[in-house]
Every structure is written in structure tokens, then in C-alpha cells.
Amino acid sequence: MKKPNNKFKKSKVKLISGSWKGRSIQFIEKDKLRPTKNIIKETLFNLLQHDIEDSICLDMFAGSGSLGFEAASRGAKSVYMIEKDSDIVRCLNEQKNILEAHNVEIIKADVMTYEINFLNKVDILFLDPPFSENLLGDVLKKLIESNDLKRECLIYIEFPFNKKVAKPFDSPENWKLLKENKSGEVSYLLFKNNAL
């Protein structure tokens, strides 16, 4: 039997509300892994509070699992969390088992090559890739071409704040901007897909 990998230091992030309110999940400290700040997460889930129940959520760069587990805690029907790093995937599965999160599926895959093939289209998408990798434009193009987003899907995007550039990607014309804000060095947007 393979022993768990304990070479990485672990930190914790607290779940704000729902079934697991007040419980913490652990994540391993690795370069490029940056959990969404609690103040941003609280703002986001206040905006999503009427949409999260029984939704299909996709967290395309799961990392710490903070957004995905928060959605699951608040009553999402299914939460798919994609992550390519083996150590992070192992940690996410440990947290899933501890929480007995039956509505969470951890998928070990590279977002750029993974073919999304869910039974139901996505209601809520979390898109918070590593800031240093400049992946947003390519990921959004892939998503739009895939037709996996439900009409009126809500799309949350996080990226590094740059006062010279409003956003480092082009959003589709049919996406309606619902919220735009920043916290420290982080900008975040919430869109609604109004595709016909």
C-alpha cells in the first residue's frame, strides 16, 4: 500500500456556510496554488446564494478546493473539480473523504486537453487558473467551442489586478457582466451566459 506523501506543508481554509459551515479543509502549499480570499469568496457566494442549490458546478482549476467544496457545502447537486497535479489531487480526495462529500467528483486532468463530457450542462463555472500561466484566453475559447455551458450559466473568473489592463481576455459578446471588483492584487468578475 502506498504511503501518503507528507513532504508538503499543509495549510487550512475554512468553509463559510452550508452543511460544513465552520469546518476547515487542508491544502498543500505549492507554488502557484493560491486559495481565493475569504472576503472574495463570501462576496461571490452571496451573489450565488439563489443559484447554488441543486446546481451543476465546475471548478476548472481546483487547487485548494476552496470554491468547489464551498459550493458542495451550500447544496450544489454535483461539483466537478479538475486538477492536474497528482499531489494536489491526492489532498483533494483526502478532504472529500473526510467531509464525506458525495456530491464532489475530483478529476485528475489537464484542463487544456480534457474533454468535458458531463451528463448535464454546467450551471456555475469557477475559473481561477494560476496567475503566472496566462491561460484564461485559451480556456475561455475552449469552453465556448465546447458548448458545455448551460444558457444562463454563471461564470466566475479571477485574475491578477492590473490597472493598465481591465481584463487579460476577451469575453464573448453574449456574456453579461454582473459583478466586477478587486481585492488587493486580485480582480474578479461574475458573468451570465446569455447565449441563445
Features:
single chain; 196 residues; alpha/beta; Rossmann fold; 7-stranded mixed sheet; two-stranded antiparallel ribbon; 4 helices; 9 strands
Walk me through the structure:
It is a single chain. Helix content is 22%, strand content 31%. The protein contains four helices and nine strands, in the order E-E-H-E-H-E-H-E-E-H-E-E-E. It has a seven-stranded mixed beta sheet, sandwiched between helices. A two-stranded antiparallel sheet has the order 1-2. It has a single domain (10-193), classed as Vaccinia Virus protein VP39 (Rossmann fold). A hairpin with a 2-residue loop joins strand 8 (175-183) and strand 9 (186-193). The chain has helices at residues 38-48, 66-73, 86-99, 136-146, and strands spanning 10-14, 24-28, 56-59, 78-83, 104-108, 122-127, 149-160, 175-183, 186-193. It starts with 9 loop residues before the first strand and ends with a strand.
Proportion in helices: 10-25%
The oligomerization state is single chain
The strand order across the widest sheet is 5-4-3-6-7-9-8
Residue-averaged pLDDT = 88
Name of the CATH superfamily: Vaccinia Virus protein VP39
Q: Calculate the terminal CA-CA distance, rounded to whole Å.
A: 51 Å
The largest sheet, given as strand count, sense and whether it forms a barrel, is: 7 strands, mixed
Secondary-structure-based class equals alpha/beta
Number of helices: 4
